[in-house]
Known about the structure:
Elements: E1 3-4, H1 6-16, E2 21-25, H2 30-33, E3 37-40, E4 52-56, H3 62-77, E5 81-89, H4 95-103, E6 106-110, E7 115-117, E8 122-124, E9 129-134, H5 138-145, E10 149-153, H6 156-161
Parallel strand pairs: 2-3, 4-5
Antiparallel strand pairs: 1-7, 5-9, 6-9, 6-10, 7-8
Helix pairs in contact: 1-5, 3-4
Amino acid sequence: MSGILRRICLKVREVLGNIDVDPASSDFAQKTVKAKIHYSILNSGLDKPCIGTVYLNPPCSSKEINAFASKFIEEYEFGNIIQGIVLTNSDTDTQWYHRLAGMSRAICFPRGRVKFYNKEKVGQTPTGQTFFYCGNNYKKFIEVFSQVGIIVKVSDMLCNSI
């Protein structure tokens, strides 16, 4: 697994403060993310509780994104997640994407591709990405992430109707 570049991760932490849980990560990525608890491919966060402040950047396969997005949505709807940022591919034609967008307070479409890195190199994703923000600190998300790309504030009516 790889991690996002430090400058993006600093923005995530600027909005969220301390990150309690990163349910789809690696030891390498945690050098940047610095979550209190993180789970990896060896001990998946899909069957562990996500409580508090959560940062989620799930693996890119359709099956895994769907599973992790569903987990995040379930935990948020139960009130276990206070606030969170989810970074995914911009798969706007999928059900999980619309579910995340519908429950988000604000969304960021980054200018250019998000750069990820691993121990060997830095590289761009093959597709565009989306940052979803869920929680009450959406004004801070808008302020911080407006430097990253286009921000869409999701209306309360839309959030409640989906």
